[in-house]
Amino acid sequence: MTGMQELNAFRDRGDVIWNIANLLRGPYRPPQYRRVMIPLTVLRRLDCVLEPTKDQVIAMHRKFKAEVKTDGSAKYDAETIEKIISQKFGLTFYNTSEFTFQKLLGDPDKLVANFTNFMAGFSSRARRIIEKFKFEEELEKLDEANRLFEVIKEVAAVDLHPDRIPNIAMGYLFEDLVRRFNEQANEEAGDHFTPREVIRLMVNILFTHDDLVYREGKVIKVYDPACGTGGMLSESEKLITAPEKGLNPGANLELFGQEYNPEAYAICGSDLMIKGEDVKNIIFGNTLGTGRSKEGFVDGDGHANEQFHYMLANPPFGVEWKPEKSHVTKEHNDFGFNGRFGPGLPRINDGALLFLLHMISKMEAPPDKDGEGSRIAIVFNGSPLFTGDAGGGESNIRRWIIENDMLEAIIGLPDQLFYNTGIYTYVWIVTNRKRPERRGRVQLINGAEFAWKMKKSLGNKRKRIGDGTEGAPDHIKVLTRLYGDFRNDVRMTLEEIQTNIDPNRDPSKSLCVSKIFDNREFGYLKITVERPLRLNFAVTDERIERFRASSYFVNLAVSKKRKDKNKAAEEMEKGRIAQNAILDVLTVMKADFSGGEAVRDRGVFEKQVAKAFKKAGVRLDAALKKALLAPGSLGEKDPGAEICVNKKGEPEPDADLRDTENVPFPADIPLPLPLDYRGKKKTSKVDVTGLLALVQDHCEAYLRAEVLPYRPDAWIDHDKIKVGYEIPFNRHFYEYEPPRPLEEIEADIHGLEKEIMAMLREVTV
Description:
Blueprint lengths: L2 H18 L13 H17 L3 H13 L11 H12 L11 H4 L6 H10 L3 H8 L3 H10 L3 H9 L10 H19 L1 H4 L5 H12 L11 E6 L6 H11 L10 E8 L2 H13 L7 E5 L11 E2 L10 E4 L11 H11 L16 H9 L14 E6 L2 H4 L6 H11 L3 E6 L13 E6 L9 E6 L5 E7 L2 E4 L10 H11 L4 E4 H4 L12 E9 L4 E8 L4 E3 L3 H8 L2 H5 L9 H25 L12 H15 L5 H8 L5 E3 L21 E6 L24 H18 L8 E2 L5 E4 L3 H5 L8 H23 L1
Parallel strand pairs: 1-2, 1-5, 2-3, 3-4, 5-6, 7-9
Antiparallel strand pairs: 6-8, 7-8, 9-13, 10-11, 12-13, 14-17, 14-18, 14-19, 15-16
Helix pairs in contact: 1-10, 2-10, 2-14, 3-4, 7-14, 10-14, 12-13, 12-19, 23-24
């Protein structure tokens, strides 16, 4: 069978199965058809695959089950029997039930029970996947609606035997059906189904200029930690091993994945079974982990101690990771960089970056450490680009990736590409085997305009990236070439891009589509700029009342003796006496300020207070002095007052005037920076000594140039310096467009006025 014949065969049978779904109308809504048709397609394919050896497998299974040891116990356990049969017949699964699709039709009255028996007859690995479809529930529903026999009959008539549809063509057919049914489900499917053109772009870029994928007979491991229905694994497989057009058809490709949604996991595993591949590497479980394990579900890394050459993912973004918080935080605190989440943790409302950290932990050792290295392509929303303050979790994750020279490129995609969201998305390419010309640099590709309007919207999906089909240009090819060329300041016109989104736009408009930056250009220093505290002082009724409202004054008459009421009353009375003594001193001092004057030097006023309290015989301790001199008590902010200084003669900062500035890195700063990601203890500060040796003079120069001309009394508190990293993607590609001249706008307004007046005259005549 030629390639074209294979393609036509899978299309014909795909259309037949698609049309069978119309029998479900009534008991099911169209978005629910996949609950029936996808598992039935899987089961029918498996039925066809097993047909030639069915009787022999059953006979051998019965023989091994019947054999016993001398003590009467079974000679072979179930696992051993499975291994023997699989090896004997070259199968990754088998079925020991007497039923086939054709035999099921022979007894319509017992169809539900017999079909259940048929599903239970599969070998354990296949059965675990099939069970996730929960098809038993659909059997009952179909039977009650009198649809079961007709649907089974129609599906049984579809020949899916490998002699008619080889494994690779069957993979295409199944993938096409999954796509069609998921598109009908729209938003419900969006969490587990990535548009195929997005996956093709990711896969194409991941393998561009990468020598590893071309090695003859090479064992290549591909991994998706949030594999959904397996689209990224399937596309990777096609691009590498397709017989005619694959990059390396002779490669030994191994696919690995993990998925926590039962139906998506079942679809992914079924796709591999349909292609005749082993499904042992597709794990059902939560990649991040919660610490609460349950039977049949892997809680955490399902491929511990494994490393992979290529990794792809579209993790859930904008989704809270609260269920995983305690488990992930414990791993971060206990293991640091020996675990998966060493650099830091993102905020709780978006855990997408955790998947990237997990994937980086699965990288092969880089070439400079005698390894082969790895490449990662992952889809994010805009949040991981810039969310989080300097020194925070997200910023530290970006810092660690960039300073270790792992971020290779980011491709900005059009909006309205996904079924369940219309937001802009970004593909990150992360690797520890950069080509020499890319080392120390990051490429940003602006693909926001590389979009083709769809004839029919699917949920929030109104656009697609052109792939050269159905009249659309091949945007995937152009974006891949932009990546491969690795050129700075590349410009294209809308006409060259070929987009049909807004035909009224000027096709000659030029846009920048590729820029290249040094790693350090994404980092910045967050410095704290202080200004001195300046206070004036006076003793007036108003300021005395403010002092009386202070926590210090109030707490003088509050007792800490909770159990002994007598001692509490005694303590409270003692406090009231102290309060009155203080107020008496302040009342005497009021006379010195009767004319409304104020003291603008804290040192002078402090001496006045000390003298007054000494004269009255009232003790003035440090806590009382602090409460009296505080702003909002006897003190009041005054820009014209003298600077308040501490015992060392240094100016005290005014917290209300404190500001921060983001200062770009020095041009010659070496990366990675001599700065830890967290203190040696959970509560300790990060030591900034090494960092300050590199940047203190640079920050002071910034202060002199940008701050002191406007605030000459400002200074930097260098102990509070922080390092931040962000990738302001849109800002780098923003180009100012001046508004139209006022004359043109005025002329348009006059023209509209004339049109309105003309229409009004038509109405009134």
